[in-house]
């Protein structure tokens, strides 16, 4: 199983970034994919999740109206479009894929740094 993020970087407040994540696994079914973030000295927190099969996206209150999560099911890709970024969005962003083979397990990417300057 591989989960790989890309697309982080440095941006000024008010700017935009798009994160990408590719999940690959043989014989696994992806149940849900999502984005989490961890700021320095803080716990990892949910940003947005999107269940497979057309379910509704779930967003943290702090990013509603600014971030959009989407998937390309054919490519097993997950995206996070981040608009109107704020300095408090600065964190390492992690892609999560909850997959089922026999049991369900969470798989994480290595993380990508997003830094928003004021």
SSE layout:
Layout: E1 2-6, E2 9-12, E3 17-24, E4 29-38, E5 45-51, E6 58-59, E7 67-72, E8 77-82, E9 91-100, E10 104-108, E11 112-117
Parallel strand pairs: 2-11
Antiparallel strand pairs: 1-3, 3-8, 4-5, 4-9, 5-6, 7-8, 9-10, 9-11
Task: Identify the notable features of this structure and list them briefly.
single chain; 118 residues; mainly beta; 7-stranded mixed β-sheet; 4-stranded antiparallel β-sheet; 0% helix; globular
Describe the structure.
The chain has 118 residues and is mainly beta. The chain has no helices and eleven strands. The strands form two sheets. Strands 2, 4, 5, 6, 9, 10 and 11 form a seven-stranded mixed β-sheet that branches. It has a four-stranded antiparallel β-sheet with strand order 1-3-8-7, with no helix packed on it. A hairpin with a 4-residue loop joins strand 7 (67-72) and strand 8. The radius of gyration is 14 Å and the shape is globular.
Between the first and last Cα atoms, what is the distance in angstroms? 38 Å
pLDDT averaged over residues: 94
Helical segment count: 0
Q: Strand-and-helix sequence, N→C?
A: EEEEEEEEEEE
Enumerate the spans where pLDDT stays under 50 for 5 or more consecutive residues: none
What does the radius of gyration come to?
14 Å
Strand count, sense and barrel status of the largest sheet are: 7 strands, mixed
Structural class: mainly beta
Question: Which percent bin holds the helix content?
Answer: under 10%
**Anisotropy-based shape:** globular
Secondary structure tally: strands: 11
Name the beta content range: over 45%
């Amino acid at each position: 199983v591989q989960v790989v993020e890309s697309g982080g970087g440095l941006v000024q407040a008010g700017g935009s970034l798009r994160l990408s994540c590719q999940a690959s696994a043989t014989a696994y079914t992806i149940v849900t994919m999502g984005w989490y973030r961890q700021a320095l000295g803080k716990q990892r927190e949910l940003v947005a999740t999107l269940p497979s099969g057309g379910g509704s996206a779930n967003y943290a209150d702090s990013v509603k109206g600014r971030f959009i999560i989407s998937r390309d099911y054919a490519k097993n890709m997950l995206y996070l479009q981040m608009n109107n970024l704020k300095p408090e969005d600065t964190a390492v962003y992690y892609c999560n894929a909850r997959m089922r083979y026999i049991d369900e397990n969470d798989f994480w990417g290595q993380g990508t740094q997003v830094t928003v300057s004021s």
